[in-house]
Structure formats: structure tokens, C-alpha cells
Design a protein that fits this description.
Radius of gyration: 24 Å
Shape: rod-shaped
Largest sheet: 3 strands, antiparallel
Order of helices and strands: EHEEEEEEEEE
Number of strands: 10
Distance between the termini: 64 Å
Mean pLDDT: 88
């Protein structure tokens, strides 16, 4: 048995995403700690804390498979996992493409990944793919 309990509130996103301050509350249970029973403030304590953005690194991004030319710009999907969690395009990152309109020949197409919301990239990360 512990003499206290811990609870969290608004602890899933950075404040810029959720617009809510993350909080940690510790409450005294039983007689394990000395409190002034007449003063509710001595029975619990709530603290604000900060959640920082997680970094997306090159190692978090799966390679882009070879694409088949279909006469229009190709925008292959990208799979990104940070700490085992699969990220979602538009919410967690944005994609931009370059040279993705025609067969590659000697050049290659690129997709640039930029972190967003709870995630960041120090600079856009480029992944190369081939159009055949």
C-alpha cells in the first residue's frame, strides 16, 4: 500500500497542440503523511509540467519503394515510427515532393519530411525514390 496516489491530466500532447496545460497531481491517502485535515491544500498538490516535441530522425523513416510511372506526379506514402508509434501525415508531419513527375533516368525523385505538432525535425529530412 502506498500513502499517496498520482494522476495526470492533459498529458498526451504538447501545449501548442492541445492548448491545455499538462498537470500532475499527488494526493495523500490514509495516515501515511502528516496533513492538516482541516486544510484541503495539505492533502494534495498539483504541478504543471511541459511536454517537449519528439524528434523525427532519418532512422525513424522507412525507405520509399520504387514507384511505377503513371503519367502524373507520384506521391508515395511514407511510414514513420517514433518510439514504436506510427505517425500520421498531416497531424505529425508534412511531406513535400521534388522531381516526382517523370521517370527518373539518371536522376531521382525526393520526398522531404518536416515534423509538425508533437514532432519536429532539425531540418527537413530527404528520402530518395526511383520512378521506373
Amino acid at each position: 500500500n502506498t500513502a499517496y496516489s498520482v494522476s495526470y491530466k492533459n498529458n498526451k500532447d504538447i501545449m501548442g497542440v492541445s492548448r491545455k496545460q499538462p498537470e500532475l497531481t499527488v494526493k495523500v491517502k490514509g495516515n501515511g503523511w502528516i496533513t492538516d485535515n482541516a486544510d484541503e491544500a495539505t492533502k494534495s498538490r498539483t504541478l504543471n509540467f511541459t511536454i517537449d516535441q519528439a524528434e523525427i530522425t532519418r532512422a525513424d523513416i522507412a525507405d520509399v519503394v520504387i514507384q511505377t510511372f503513371r503519367g502524373k506526379a507520384l506521391k508515395p506514402k511514407v511510414t514513420i515510427k517514433v518510439n514504436g508509434r506510427k505517425l500520421k501525415e498531416g497531424r505529425d508531419y508534412e511531406l513535400t515532393y521534388d522531381n516526382n513527375i517523370k521517370r527518373s533516368g539518371t536522376s531521382t525523385a525526393t520526398v522531404k519530411i518536416t515534423g509538425k505538432g508533437n514532432y519536429f525535425t532539425k531540418k527537413p529530412i530527404e528520402k530518395v525514390f526511383v520512378i521506373k
